[in-house]
Amino acid sequence: MTNNRHFQIFLAAPPGLEETLCSEVRMKGFRQPKVVPGGVTLRGGWPEVWRANLWIRGASRVLARVAQFKAEYLSQLEKRAREVKWTEFLRPDVPFKVEVSCSSSRIYHSGAAAERISKIVTELLGAPAEDNADVVLRVRIDQNFCTISVDTSGDLLHRRGHKEAVNRAPMRETMASLFLRKCGYNGQETVLDPMCGSGTFVIEAAEIASRLNPGRSRHFAFEQLATYDEDAWQTMRSVKSERTPEFRFYGSDRDAGAITMSEANALRAGVTACTEFRQATISEIMPPERGSPGLVILNPPYGTRIGDKTKLSALYRALGNRLLEQFKGWRVGILTTEVSLAHATGLPFLPTGAPIPHGGLKVFLFQTDALSR
Predict the structure, then answer these.
(1) Which residues pair with 89 in a beta bridge?
(2) Can you give the three-state secondary structure of the chain, one letter per residue?
(3) Mean pLDDT taken over the chain
(4) Which of 121, 227, 247, 373 minimizes the number of CB atoms within 10 Å of its CB?
(5) Cα separation of 165 and 144, whole Å?
(6) What are phi and psi of 268, to 5 degrees?
(7) What percent of the chain has pLDDT over 90?
């Protein structure tokens, strides 16, 4: 229960990227993060919850696990729910809603469980239960064990507050940051995306290099909790660690509209000084004239995403030829669902890992070492 100063905090990640998220959490100074299915756990208090929302780029949401107990029957669930110290973290004047998932448990009716918990919270606290409430209690009953969490993020964390314009099948910022990290990017090199769309990879790489907090421009659900301290939060978010990168980040796309979107998104993110976008086809892309080789990363069209797989093979071949001819010394990361399309590039890929769920599909990250020719 939350009468202890520290409790378990869960940071959600796509299956297959938990280790990558854990490395970021550890690098940001959180103590003893642990990889679990679907994310990373750590122990801390409400300041750690705030920092995780403000600092961590790869997590999709941050949950504060406020109660855990065994519950085999609805009556047992009700009894234990009455023992939760709701007043420690919920406000009587702020609406809430309860979302329940049940798996391999005697309690199998999620709606009935949600109704019981909602009724108890309203009875004990006075807070109204509303379907569109910003404060969400996420309850998981798995193998007769109940975990009650407060979703402290609200909107998913990829909604940084900067990207208003998007193209078809956009890459989420949280996913982009994790794929950049899997490619070895740590903010110390140039990044180029030759099919930049709305500029997500380029802008995310620029923000990392500029040491900008991903949550700097948005609000969070924890601001409506009883544990919220406005002065402490403003002090935390006012700490500045920005720097001006010594190199630039480049995006190109054959679509002029994509360049306009990317430039507008970069402006809102505050990284126009270190980003550059231009209209160009794959056959026209070139490395920057100055600087050392870095990382080429892209989320190109694939058959189940945009376009016909047969027609796209020629595009992938052209991409591979151009990279091999012009980008000696650069590493490459390509996301695709289609193994055959990736191999059509002719690039010397390293062994691939398991596919990662993304937008209802499963994508592979194909990577190379520094290209030798």
Answers:
(1) none
(2) CCCCCCEEEEEECCCCCHHHHHHHHHHCCCCCCEEECCEEEEEECHHHHHHHHHHCCCCCCEEEEEEEEECCCHHHHHHHHHHCCHHHCCCCCCCEEEEEEEECCCCCCHHHHHHHHHHHHHHHHCCCECCCCCEEEEEEEECCEEEEEEECCCCCCCCCCCCCCCCCCCCCHHHHHHHHHHCCCCCCCCEEECCCCCCHHHHHHHHHHHCCCCCCCCCCHHHHCCCCCHHHHHHHHHCCCCCCCCCCEEEEECCHHHHHHHHHHHHHHCCHHHEEEEECCHHHCCCCCCCCCCEEEECCCCCCCCCCHHHHHHHHHHHHHHHHHHCCCCEEEEEECCHHHHHHCCCCECCCCCCEEECCEEEEEEEECCCCC
(3) 93
(4) 373
(5) 44
(6) -65, -30
(7) 87
For residues 219 and 140, give the distance between their C-alpha atoms in angstroms, rounded to a whole number. 25
Residue 257 tokens, joined: 């509209």
Encoded amino acid at 184, one letter:
G
Q: Residues 248-272: pLDDT tens digits?
A: 999 999 999 999 999 999 999 999 9
At 6, list the tokens: 């520290």
Distance between CA 95 and CA 296 in Å, rounded?
46
How many residues in the chain?
373
Smallest CA-to-CA distance from 285 within 261, 241, 315, 308 is with 315
Of 177, 159, 152, 170, give the one whose Cα is nearest residue 58.
177
Phi, psi of 254 (to 5 degrees): -75, -15
**How far is 216 from 164, CA to CA, in rounded Å?**
16
